[in-house]
Amino acid sequence: MYPFLRLLIRGQRIDRRVLYVLLMTVVALPFVVEIPTPKPAISPETQKFYDTIEAIAADPVRREKLVILSTNFGAGTLAENQTQTDAICKHLMKKKLKFAIFAFVAAQGREQGKIAAERAATKYGYVYGQDYVNWGYRPADAIEPLLKAAVRDIPDAVGNDINGTPLAQVPVMQGVKSVNDVGLIIEVAAALTLPQWLQYYQRTGEEPIPTLYAPTSVMAPEGFPFLKSGQLQGMLFGLRGANEYEVLIDERDFGKRGAASLAYSHLLIIVLVILGNVGMFAQARLEKLYREENA
Amino acid sequence: MFVPQTGITLWLFILGALVVGGGVFFVLTLVPTRFRKPLIAAVTFLAGLFFALEFFLPVATEGETKGQNFLTPFLKPVSAWTTILQGFALGIGVYSLVSVHLRNIARKREGRGFSVVLLAAIVAMAVPAIWKEYNPDPRLKGFYEIIYDGAFNSLNATMYSVVAFYIVSAAYRAFRIRSREATLILISAFLIMLGQVTIGQAITNGIPNEGFARNFRIENIANWILTRVNSPAVLAIEFGVGIGALATSLRIWLSLERGSYFDEEL
Amino acid sequence: MEHATTSARIILILFSVIIVTQVIRAQRGQRPFIRRIPGLTAIEEAVGRAVEMGRPILTSVGMGGIDIITLQALAIVTHVAGVAARFGQRIILPVRNAAFVPIAEDAISTAYNQAGRPDAFSEQDIIFLSGEQFAYAAGVSGLIQREKVAATFLFGQFFAESLIIAENANQVGAIQVAGTPSTTQIPFFIVACDYVIIGDEYYAATAYLTRQPTIMGSLVGQDRVKMAVIGLIVLGAILLSFGMPVVWNLFFDKELATLADYFKPQGTLIQSLGAGGGK
Fold it and tell me: Distance between CA atoms of C216 and C210, rounded to whole angstroms?
């Protein structure tokens, strides 16, 4: 009995370097070896995300309006946010919706949005300037006055695109003047940037603008209250949401491989936690046996 | 009302702004010490008053100015001014960084080697980034991409991914069944983790996704915990934080702050 | 909403008056009662441990700019410095904002002077690391590992770097007290730190420690506003259950023409996206 308990006790003392190597292996393996994983169950918020874009594309009036794709993330959250942005760009291009990329927290966001759009544009024949535009980056602390000004005059408030061209001269921005010409807001976020849209832009027009949210999984719980209240129409829950979304738009990419990584790393954590608890109970049992022996 | 200028008029405006700005700074240095705090309070109040009034004042309900009050047309220039101020803030950040590290090197402080590396990194990153905007040479663009995508982005992503390793060691250490609350955290963490991933969802794939039975599918259980348990708690904290933000903004706007930093002589 | 509706005007101005009134009353001498925050009892214990082990204490005021949250964090750190100064204990404060360094130096050195131990303070311990999030995190982690700190106090605005810092401190065996209004970082602090001050307790902690009238009055004002919000939620839920959306309409963002409109249902916030739903 004692040797068995002593073996179990080791489960709570695994060196953290061993933990790190195990994690690294489990995360990297799906990218090297094709490990089959089941298809994901589509969560309600991802389904709503997809359905919203489909509904807008099907509406003859709303589909002519501009979609604002706000890409507020940097290199740190590429796995989640870039995957989401790639899938969103593909969906928007598939449905022939015109969109504008914009960043105001992470300056890298405009580059990452640009990368996603260019990658999808080659497949769907989208042309910069004709079908989509990149508004570039504006400082975070100046975003509230900018959004307030953009309620009435977007080209004037935003100014130039990423190439320095005045927005009024960009073909895709023709006919886009005020908030009433915006049909959808999609916020891809690694920081808390959603309140700015909800407070200063979403409901300043003749009718509220449908808003979709694609945060990292750490921030996703903060989006649920807004989903419940109707301020958000859909949400992608980090990499899991991106994977589900790829299934819905039938464009499997990084989300599929990332989801396998995610699955096995979660399982690893669960196994380690179980081992740790088993070890803890085994230690308590062993101590009790020693006490009884010595009593 | 603020029309963009070009050519010689633009330069005259810039020169005029520098002269006026310099003059204002000079006059401010002449203000007696006992009037400086009230002056700052007055300027802070007026700056905030614009946005408060623009939001609170009633708007026209018809005509050309429907949905606007008399302050609304000024939103665009104010937006441009705040963007410009933020641009200066970026410059100040770079200035502070460079001056601190140059001082380290000049005073031969311990760790000055790192200051040298940092200053070299600033130059190595900034020079190609600015130069490539004016020089179409593809080698410059390539060099910039090596530094930005290859070095900076990769280092940033690497540091962020370190969090994953620390989560594993923290979870392994912290999730022990030592109390009722700890057990509750553990069970809900397991359910949510399994509900998030395809392998976990496969455990309950046999249960139909309709009717009462759907409540036993693991992804639905995880969703319930997130939306019915976690979400109200987050909402409650956000209420408090939001009201705290209102209070903080009022304290700054009305210059109500007292205490060592705010009561110092200027 | 682009401009305030009548009800928004009334509610916001009322809430503002409540908060400002409490601040002014506190500044004029009224001292409200604030209960002791559990995490704060650990400060003396943590400092004592550091003294016994002969290792320094690391503090951080977070990733925010020079704003109220960071200044409140500095107020807590200054209190910790005051306790540490009594024992001549060393405090290390890495900052991410170069402009914050003189403010921090002034505050911490004052704490040491007031404790009668100016010799124990060193300007070198207030270190500007970097404005970049992960460069700062890497710098703090390095400091923790090299100095083998005995205690860490992490207060202020944190983001993804919170777990990096907290876990590194855990690895060197430091006792940790953390407090942040950032809700997304609370779970990370809870698993890695010994004591955590959550959400609103952060504001209460600064009020409790500093006893500054402005912060105390502000805290009372906030609590009164929260009670009003809770009352409105309960009242609104009851009234809505009986088919009277009065409270709902108070917060609805369209200007309502008559008093009777407050008793009428106004529809969902976002209209259906079915075909023909647009204008």
Answer: 9
Residues C208 and C220 sit within 8 Å (Cβ to Cβ): no
Mutate to test the interface with B, among C122, C123, C167 (most CBs of B within 10 A): C167
What is the interface size between A and C, counted as CB pairs within 8 Å? 54
User: Residue B11: what pLDDT?
Assistant: 93
- Cα separation values, B41 from B44, B50, B257, C216, Å: 5, 15, 11, 21
Q: Does A41 touch chain B (CB under 8 A)?
A: yes
Cα atoms in the Cβ-side hemisphere of radius 13 Å centred on A239: 18
Q: Do C163 and B170 form a contact (C-beta atoms < 8 A)?
A: yes
Q: Find out whether C142 and C129 touch, Cβ atoms under 8 Å.
A: no
* pLDDT confidence of residue B241: 82
Domain boundaries, chain B: 9-61, 79-174, 177-266
Whole-number Å distance between alpha carbons of B115 and B133: 28
Compute the average pLDDT of residues C78-96.
91
Restricting to A residues 73-112, those with a Cβ less than 8 Å away from any Cβ of B are 74-78, 108
The structure's pTM equals: 0.85
**pLDDT per position as a tens digit, B96-135:** 778 878 888 998 877 788 889 989 988 888 888 888 778 7
**C-beta neighbour count of A38 within 10 angstroms:** 14
- B42: CB partners within 8 A, 6+ apart: none
Per residue in B143-161, pLDDT (tens digit) is 888 888 788 888 888 888 8
Q: Is A249 within the bounds of a domain?
A: no
Which domains are seen in chain C, by residue range?
Answer: 6-31+216-263 (no CATH), 38-210 (3.40.50)
Nearest CA in chain A to C253: A203
